[in-house]
Amino acid sequence: MICTHCSNEFSIEESNAACSKCGSFGGCNLVMCPKCGYEQPKIPKWLEKASQFFGKKNQLKVK
Ligand SMILES: [Zn+2]
Questions:
Q1: Which of 45, 44, 42 is nearest to 32 (CA)?
Q2: Which of 2, 19, 32, 51 has the fewest CB atoms below 10 angstroms from its CB?
Q3: Strand partners, 19
Q4: Which residue has the higher pLDDT, 24 or 31?
Q5: Ligand 1 midpoint to CA 58 (Å)
């Protein structure tokens, strides 16, 4: 998924590794960006795919 704060792209696994430092590993519904530490709600897989689809569409328009 993509961080809404710094636009860093990371996987849920990376987020879990970063989140394990916060003490509520597995207990919170947030994903933490490993780059900037910004926490945001988990995005469902289907929504992530949809946003990636629309993101690619937008990139094609720009080019
Ligand atoms: Zn970030």
A1: 42
A2: 51
A3: none
A4: 31
A5: 22
DSSP 9-56: B--HHHHHHHHGGGS-TTT-SEEE-TTT--EEEPPPHHHHHHHHHHHH
Ion ligand 1: residue ranges with CB closer than 5 A: 3, 5-6, 8, 33, 35-36, 38
- The continuous run of DSSP H or E covering 61 comes out as helix 45-62
Q: Is the pTM of this model over 0.85?
A: no
Q: How far apart are CA 35 and CA 2, in angstroms?
A: 11
C-alpha to C-alpha distance for 28 and 61, rounded to whole angstroms: 38
Q: Ligand 1 mean position to 35 CA, how many Å?
A: 5
